[in-house]
Amino acid sequence: MATKIRLQRHGRKGYAFYQVVVADSRAPRDGKFIERIGSYNPNTNPATIDLNFERALYWLQVGALPTDTARMILSREGVCYKKHLLEGVKKGAFDEAAAETKFDQWLTKKKLSLQDVKNKARDTIKASAKTLLEVEKEVNKTKATALSKKRAELAISAAKKAAAEAAEVAAAEAAEIAEITAPAAIEVVTEEAKVAETPSEE
């Protein structure tokens, strides 16, 4: 029986995450498996990997073959490197203490590189948010300028309309006053003319 370390898909469409399982190569992708040794979520940056290190190392040592993606996961977690170091110990290239020292150095370096990736991702998100904020401020400033201009135009229009209405009212009042005073003025003129025409008794 060919045993493989591979991924088993879970999650909804567009948001898949995977279980890392040890299964018979003849079993379907999401079917029966021998043991689940971890999980892999590629939707985060960097990808989130939760792996049972000891069991993954055991299955590699007994001959389980990882798929390409599973090999990448095991390499990132140091399982493949640890297996390589243990084989070196078996061959007598170095002792177990030296192997542990090398693995600890590699693990420290790996953690630092992962932390750098997380920091870069966080800085990118912050820079993107800052850029979006600046763009939004510019848009709001443009909208405020346009709004103030429109309000000024409306105020000028309202003032012109009020002035025109006031002028019309004044003209109407002047016309009414002229209509009222014109007959009286004619009567006064007529009376003065009669007085002028009347001969004096001297």
Q: Secondary-structure blueprint of this entry?
A:
Layout: E1 3-12, E2 15-24, E3 35-41, E4 48-51, H1 53-61, E5 65-66, H2 68-77, H3 79-91, H4 96-197
Parallel strand pairs: 1-5
Antiparallel strand pairs: 1-2, 2-3, 3-4
Could you provide a short overview of the structure?
By secondary structure, the chain is of the alpha+beta class.
Describe this structure in words.
There is one protein chain. Helix 1 crosses helix 3 and helix 3 (79-91) runs antiparallel to helix 4. This protein has a domain at 3-93: S16 Ribosomal Protein, Chain: A (2-Layer Sandwich), CATH 3.30.1320.10. The mean pLDDT is 85. The chain has a five-stranded mixed beta sheet. It has helices at residues 53-61, 68-77, 79-91, 96-197, and strands at 3-12, 15-24, 35-41, 48-51, 65-66. It is built from four helices and five strands. The longest helix is centred in the last third of the chain and has 102 residues, at 96-197. With 202 residues, it is an alpha+beta fold.
